[in-house]
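User: Okay, second chain of the day. Same drill as before: sequence in, structure tokens out.
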Amino acid sequence: MVAVTPETGTSMRYAWRVCSVTSLGLVLIGIAGSTLNVALPTVVRHFHADATQSGWILLAFLLVNTASLVFFGRIADLLGRREVYLAGFALFTVASLLAGLSPNVWFLVGMRVVQAIGSAMILANGTVIITDAFPPERLSQGMGVYIGTLSVAQLAGPTLGGLIAETAGWQWIFWVNVPAGLIALGWGAVILRKMPKRPKEPVDALGNVLVFAALSAVLLAVNEAGSGGLTSPVVLAGAALFVLLVPLIMLAERRAPNPVLDLRLFGGRLLAYANLASFCNALARSALILVVALYFQAARGLDAFSAGLSVLPVPVGIGLASPIAGLLGPRVSPYGLSIGGAVMSALGLGTLMLTADPATPYWVTGIALFVAGCGSGTFLTGNTTQVMAALPSGSLGVVNGFRVMIMNVGIVISVGLSLSVVTSSVGPALRAQVYAGTLSTLSPVAVGQLMDGFQRAYAVLFAVALTGAVLAALARSQRAPASLDSTSR
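Assistant: Same drill. Structure tokens below.
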């Protein structure tokens, strides 16, 4: 039992205010993503976008966001987390305003890139700011609330996205972020304290360029493989460039005085397996709302608003499980929460795989989605607490950037892989109709073929979720490397 003193009471009040700021940031990013997932067919129809353009509306954000997370984690370690975090809010808000003014689809893709940079500045620092604010024995509670707010965004996002798409127009899918961004920027400027400046150190420019290039190459190759095949020139060139850059990154980072990726931080058992488990969980869960919303529109002919309501069990599950998992922190280890959550996620996806049929009653699908959501909420709370509590304080920014980057790689692969598996069952001529959500009006035969694609997509995600459960079981706790402890204080 920890004694409560006036000092600890003041500290906890500040910690919860910090949690409100970072949670608001997570809500902003989560709503921006989940509204577009449901409303994508509306945007596609407005711009008359083809299948390639449709995919890039989603993937441009994910690619740039993923490839720049480690960079902004390191920049925040050196220049100040508060400053970088607030700058991210400002950039994301401006980009959202301009996205709604897009004259064509490629301008929209460009604004999604700018949004991605602002999002990376927010995501690379939110978890670190919370970890700094909360004492170790209360960290799981703060993390549970923080992760749980993601479900608030995902809860409101699909319904809000569908409602906006059907009533206000596609522009408001982006403009709704503007007032939220301004509120987050103002509240953060008031609440967040300035962090003591660390001694100025040179930024690892070469390492940042090499890491960004390697991630971009491999993610572009993975995305192109679904539509162009493994022999596509883009796939071959991206894979070759990645293979070439990996040893160069390792050599450059070993020689750099302040490496963007300190390879010593990722050699331990906990970080290796916990990050791999996080990757699998992200891959298994991330495309779920997108795929299910697409299913209800393309296969069942529902409008965007109804499809948004249909996927609500996922964020409801995350929203209920995350704070409960946080409250269980003093009784159940983060390690146990990670394993339990990963198993629940696999159970939900396995049920969806076995019941992928238009005749399946919605209550069956809803329960499966709810179980998958509960599993993700439990896993995210346990896994994040497990990783952040084991790290030396001086490396929190770069390691959290790496952790979120690994999750985002899973998200990018999940979106690209799932969409490719689903649409491959209907052939190139009908893929645009799937993205536009109009396939159900064309042919019952085509809908039947599409259902085969959904079942295969769920099977792949189920297998990945099971792998994540095994990796979570291997991620046993250990102390941070002593050589790093001594240099991080």
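The domain at 6-192+260-488 is CATH 1.20.1250.20 (Growth Hormone; Chain: A;).

User: Thanks, on to the next one.
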